[in-house]
Amino acid sequence: MTELASRTDGRLLADLSRAELLSLLEAQNEPGIRIAFPGKGTARQLARRVRPRVSRLIAQHSVGAPEEQAKNLVIEGDNLQAMTTLYGQRGQVDLIITDPPYNTGNDWRYNDKWDEDPNDPGIGDWVGRDDPGRHTIWMRFMWPRLHMMRSMLKPAGVLAICIDHRELFRLGQMLDELFGENNRIAVINWERSSTLRNDKTGVSTATEYVLVYAKDAGKAQTGRVDRTKDQDLGYTNPDQDPQGSWYGAAPFAPGRSSHEQMYYAVQNPFTGELHYPTGTKHWANGKPTVRSMLEEWGSEYAEVDIGDNCAPALLLKGAKNPLIFDAARDPVVKKAQRAALLVRKRGQWPMLVFTREGNGKPRRKTYLNKLKKGVVPSTYWADHDFLEPLDIGCTSWDSSESGTSEAGSRELRAILGNDHEFETVKPVKLFQKIVQLWCPTDGLVMDPFAGSGTTGHAVLAQNLSSGCTRRFILMEQGRPERGDSYARSLLAQRLRKVITGDWHSGRGTPLGGGFRFSQLQKKVDAECVLRMEREEMLDTVIASHFDASRRRGPGLTSLSEKGYRYLIASNADQEGFFLVWDGPGCNTNLTEEVYEAIANEASAAQLKAVYHVYGRLYVFQTDTVSFYQIPDRILSDFGLNMSSEPFSEETLT
Q1: What is the number of other CB atoms lying within 10 angstroms of the CB of residue 540?
Q2: How many domains is the chain partitioned into structurally?
Q3: How far apart are CA 334 and CA 46, in angstroms?
Q4: Which of 70, 97, 152, 225 has the highest CB neighbour number within 10 Å of its CB?
Q5: Residues 502, 540: one domain?
Q6: Which helix (H) or strand (E) holds 519?
Q7: pLDDT at 401 over 60
Q8: Does residue 265 contact residue 277 with C-beta atoms inside 8 Å?
Q9: Are 356 and 420 in a shared domain?
């Protein structure tokens, strides 16, 4: 099928709306390779047509003190609707880790009605492995969700998405188109099984993949993984250096073609041999620094043109050209050797050392206690010189680094017992490593396909081990047709147990923290908002509010259980949020009398005299009140236009 036919879903151009025609023309002019599949045109617009939902707090499934609940969020419901509802977090997520259905057959559902109305409440039918169109259906399912995930990321944000060989190439093409091939950070091949199995193909499939894409590779940063004891074994202190153990790293840097004046020979003070930077590299330090380090071996050096078509060499002062004279017979070299041996015998050698007791290549000391914490996130590297830019490319993580699926299943059984019905579970170790590499220590992690809650578990575990304050948002629908949503019976229970340490197998290490558990309900519109009872309105205000001045801070801390008449929550600045609303048809105006009650409640709760008030009408005015009119402000916080209520498309273009 052609790209044009794919984008129009087989319809005639005359049948397309003006918006669809403009979108089609824009897409045709986009550079690069484009993946085509039936239904792509509809899927392209799907994310724009999803409506946000009312979010109800389910207290019995929430865990932790109110201030801990405010930091993390678990949402029960469709992830496309959930991401639309989280309009306030658009462009605020540092890292998305997700493990979508692998399309193995009967592992996910698709509702055909979503092609016409993405707000249809049906969860759809299982897509079987014998369905001839299952690859196309899977792409129609994933495309709007990938589109929405990209919009949730910060400019420096990163997406890490798990997949196996079945949809690897199709997913990679979709991500190349949505994110841009130049923003692909890595294709990680991780060892999901430490034992070989005899698959039908005759080739054991022991690995799966994590595709890592940046929203903007120029702004994204890759961290480092923790060092191991084995990696520190190469650091010794043979010269009793007072700065401690060190490793001899190559004193070179890449990019010789742009640093020709830094490519030259230096003369070994022990042997008189000439040493050049290897390959296409140059000396990492300027020539005055290199000369100073050489002279610490007890002899003077001078710049000499030795006719090697390079920049002037650094030779022992007075030495003959080693290219035309045997350095071993040069009296200047012999004198320098005696001086260098005395320095070596003394100990505390210079920064530039020579291996093999002076007879080998030059190396620069790299002190263990001065290294940046961690190592380059790759199985393979040539040396411990971390001066070069990080570029992990395509890399492999064996089971000792990332854990295995078997380990993930054992972890889940230990926490919950044997009744969870999850056959394949990602190991916490794998997700912890991804969090450590691509999420700032105080960043926000999101998982739209949260499953058993491995992402939340990994964030909490990493926070405990490294003293970080990362937060998470998890989304899971599960199997509501059984009356047993994974979000409640599996995900929330797992997080509860790892937070408290109350594991099925015995007492685990309490990770601490907490989360707020919310359920998506009816669509948000003006009529819906104005029909809400007080409890519904309270939950909606907390879910919809976004304090732009604290973009990295937690959400509102609920105070509704304190029994106040108007005070419902506070923010990290100790400012109160008040709801003047008793339900539809009741008096909901901010009057002077109501204002006085609000001020008294704020004082009793020891909050600042800055009042954020949600209400229907603003009758009494004062500088201490920021008034948010119902329903307009709530609709606006959900990204809905206050007059016509279409979903805001600004961040989805």
Answers
A1: 27
A2: 3
A3: 79
A4: 97
A5: no
A6: strand 516-523
A7: no
A8: no
A9: no
Q: Is residue 38 a part of any domain in this protein?
A: no
Backbone φ, ψ for residue 137 (5° rounding): -60, -40
Q: Is the pLDDT of residue 53 over 50?
A: yes
Question: Do 244 and 112 share a structural domain?
Answer: no
Residue 453 lies in a domain: yes
Peptide bond into 631 cis (omega under 30): yes
> Residue written as tokens 């229970």?
493
526 within domain boundaries: no
- Verify that 62 and 208 share a domain, yes or no: yes
Average pLDDT of 550-573?
Answer: 80
| 309: Cβ contacts below 8 Å, ≥ 6 apart | none
Evaluate whether residue 321 is within a structural domain: yes
Look at the alpha carbons of 48, 50, 51, 56 in this order and tell me if their dihedral is positive or negative: negative
SS (H, E, C) 369-430: HHCCCCECCCCCCCCCCCCCCCCCCCEEECHHHHCCHHHHHHHHHHHHCCCCCCCCCCCHHH
Going by C-alpha positions, the residue among 543, 542, 537 that lies closest to residue 559 is: 542
Q: From the CB of residue 222, how many other CB atoms can be counted at a distance below 10 Å?
A: 18
| DSSP code for 583 | S
- Let me know: does 249 contact 383? Beta carbons within 8 Å: yes
276 and 205 in a common domain: no
- Which residues, other chains included, contact 395 with Cβ-Cβ below 8 Å and sequence gap of 6+? 186, 188, 189, 377, 378, 379, 380
The amino acid at residue 319 is: A
Query: Does residue 205 share a domain with residue 69?
Result: yes
3-state SS class at 296? coil
Q: Report the C-alpha gap between 508 and 494 in whole angstroms.
A: 12
Beta carbons within 8 Å of 24's beta carbon, 6+ residues apart? 4, 7, 8, 16, 41
Range of the domain at 341: 229-370
Alpha carbons 314 and 392: distance in angstroms, whole number: 35
Both tokens of 466, joined, read 């490294």
Q: Last residue of some domain: 520, 542, 576? A: 520
CATH number at residue 215: 3.40.50.150
Contact of 35 with 170, CB cutoff 8 Å: yes
Lookup result for tokens 């000499």: 304
Q: How far is the C-alpha of 489 from the C-alpha of 581, rounded, in Å?
A: 34
Determine what percent of the chain falls in helix, strand and coil, rounding each to the nearest 5: 35, 20, 45
Token digits for 37? Answer: 């599949």
CA pair distance 203, 593, nearest whole angstrom: 77
- Per-residue pLDDT, 385: 31
Please write the tens of the pLDDT for every residue from 326-350.
Answer: 999 999 999 999 999 999 999 999 9
At 352 the three-state DSSP class reads strand
| Whether the Cβ atoms of residue 203 and residue 410 lie closer than 8 Å to each other | no
The span from the CA of 488 to the CA of 62, in Å, is: 10
Give CA–CA dist 285/357, Å, rounded. 23
Q: Specify the DSSP element, H or E, that contains 184.
A: strand 184-191
State the Cα–Cα distance between residues 454 and 405, nearest whole angstrom: 12
Residues 365 and 245 in one domain: yes
Query: Rounded mean pLDDT of 233-257?
Result: 87
Domain-ending residue, one of 477, 497, 520: 520
Name the residue type at position 149. Answer: M
Bridge partners (DSSP) of residue 248 are: 365
Q: Tokens 């519904």 map to which residue?
A: 536
Q: Which two tokens stand for residue 370?
A: 């001065």
Mean pLDDT of 6-26: 58
Element (H, E) at 536: helix 534-544
Which pLDDT band holds residue 207 (cuts at 50, 70, 90)?
confident
513 and 554, same domain (yes or no):
no
Here the tokens at position 323 are 């290219």
Question: What is the C-alpha separation between 95 and 471, in angstroms, rounded?
Answer: 10
